[in-house]
C-alpha cells in the first residue's frame, strides 16, 4: 500500500521488503533444553504449559481466539519483545495503533510460552 502497485521496481520498497523478510530466529534449542526434551530423565528446567508458534500470524488470532477464548481464559502479556523497526514502519504506513498491529501481525514475537509465573 505504501509503495503502490509497482512496488517491486522501487528501491525504497525493495529495502523495506528485505528488512521484512529477514529470517526468524528459531527457538527450538532453547525450548528443547528448557523442556528437558533431550534429558535422559526428561526433567524440564521450566515447566511449560503451552507453546504458540506465532510466525505468520497475529497474537490475537493464534493465541487468544484459537486457544484462550474458547476455554474462557484470557492473558495479560506484559513482557513482549520490542517490535523491529520495519514492523513499526509498516504500522505507521498503514496508520495502525500498537493494538491493531498486534491484532494483525505477531509484532516480532516468534513464539509465546505459557509458564507459571511463580517458577
The count of helical stretches stands at 5
Amino- and carboxy-terminal Cα gap = 45 Å
Q: List low-pLDDT spans.
A: none
Give the percentage of residues in beta strands: 5-15%
| Gyration radius over CA | 18 Å
Q: Give the fraction of residues assigned to helices.
A: 25-40%
How many strand elements? 2
Shape: globular
Question: What's the pLDDT, averaged over the residues?
Answer: 84
Main pleated-sheet profile: 2 strands, antiparallel
Oligomer: single chain
Structural class: mainly alpha
| Element string (H = helix, E = strand) | HHEHHHE
Strand order of the largest sheet: 1-2
Task: Explain what this protein looks like in three dimensions.
By secondary structure, the protein is mainly alpha-helical. The protein is 38% helix and 9% strand. The chain has a two-stranded antiparallel sheet. It is globular. The model has no long low-confidence stretch (mean pLDDT 84).
Concise summary:
The protein has 119 residues and is mainly alpha-helical.
Key words describing this protein structure:
single chain; mainly alpha; 5 helices; globular
What is the element layout, followed by pairings?
Elements: H1 11-20, H2 28-35, E1 48-53, H3 59-68, H4 85-94, H5 98-104, E2 111-115
Amino acid at each position: 500500500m505504501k509503495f503502490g502497485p509497482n512496488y517491486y521496481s522501487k528501491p525504497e520498497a525493495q529495502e523495506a521488503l528485505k528488512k521484512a523478510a529477514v529470517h526468524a530466529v528459531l527457538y527450538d534449542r532453547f525450548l528443547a533444553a528448557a523442556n528437558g526434551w533431550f534429558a535422559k530423565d526428561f526433567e524440564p528446567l521450566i515447566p511449560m504449559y503451552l507453546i504458540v508458534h506465532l510466525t505468520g500470524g497475529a497474537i490475537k488470532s493464534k493465541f487468544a481466539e484459537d486457544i484462550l477464548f474458547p476455554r474462557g481464559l484470557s492473558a495479560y502479556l506484559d513482557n513482549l519483545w520490542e517490535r523491529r523497526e520495519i514492523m513499526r514502519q509498516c504500522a505507521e504506513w498503514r496508520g495502525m495503533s500498537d493494538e491493531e498491529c498486534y491484532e494483525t501481525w505477531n509484532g516480532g514475537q516468534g513464539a509465546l510460552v505459557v509458564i507459571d509465573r511463580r517458577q
